[in-house]
Amino acid sequence: DGFGEGIDAFYGSVRIVIQDNLVIGNKAVGIYMDAAQDVLVQRNIVLGSTTNTRGSGISMNNEKYQYSSSGGSLPDSFINKNIRIYNNLVAFTARGVGVVAEAEFSNYTNVKVANNIFVDNNKQLTIYTDKFSGSGNIFANNIFLSISSGTADFEGVSVSSGLKMASNSWTSTPKSFLASGSDVVGGAVLAKMAGWRNISGVGQVNASDFQPVSSSRTNGKATLIAETGITTDFYGNPVPNSGANIGAFQGGDSGSLPEAGTVPPSPPTNLRVE
Question: Given pLDDT bands bounded at 50, 70 and 90, which one contains residue 273?
Answer without folding.
Answer: very low
